[in-house]
Write a structure and sequence with these properties.
Blueprint (H helix, E strand, L loop, with lengths): L1 E7 L5 H16 L5 E5 L5 H11 L3 E6 L11 H12 L3 E4 L7 H13 L3 E5 L11 H10 L3 E5 L8
Parallel strand pairs: 1-2, 1-5, 2-3, 3-4, 5-6
Helix pairs in contact: 1-2, 4-5
Length: 159
């Protein structure tokens, strides 16, 4: 079984959403054999990746950074998407953090990088804005020798 994980931005510019979704479909639906997708189901890239992976027939493993993770969803629609995707997961891994902190997010991202064959990064190439951000997880995955596939629209930066 091939294991593909995700890291990515919470805010994806609307003008890039269709292109990014298409790239994810190509990566995930074009895969031969069984596929496991690993995601923390954060708003934005993580949820988009998980939804596309499920559409493509992958099994979903969710990696929950902390016990209070759900309280960090300030948008009701994002929380509902999180809960819906989580219900479809075949496996759930919980990091040993009571509260959502940068360290908890980094631990979840590192777990995904440690346990995947390839990491998909929905990333504008810029440094992380805090510990555990996309740039940090990409750097960590590359230090492990993981294949990292960056998905982003050229010339566009996140908000």
């Amino acid at each position: 079984m091939k294991r593909i994980g995700v890291t990515g931005h919470r805010d994806i510019p609307a003008e890039a959403l269709g292109e990014i979704r298409g790239c994810l479909r190509t990566l995930l639906c074009g895969h031969e054999g069984s596929l496991e997708a690993l995601s923390s189901l954060a708003a934005g890239a993580d949820q988009l990746f998980a939804a596309v992976a499920l559409e493509c027939g992958a099994s979903l493993t969710v990696v929950i950074p902390s016990g209070d993770y759900e309280t960090g969803f300030t948008d009701a629609a994002e929380l509902a998407r999180y809960q819906g995707l989580k219900r479809q997961a075949t496996q759930e891994v919980r990091m040993d953090f009571a509260h959502s902190t940068d360290e908890a997010y980094y631990a979840a991202g590192a777990y995904i990088a440690d346990n995947c064959d390839r990491l998909v990064a929905v990333w504008d190439g810029r440094p992380a804005r805090g510990l555990g951000g996309t740039g940090d997880i990409v750097e960590y995955a590359r230090s492990l020798g993981r294949t990292v596939t960056v998905v982003w629209r050229d010339g566009l930066t996140r908000p």
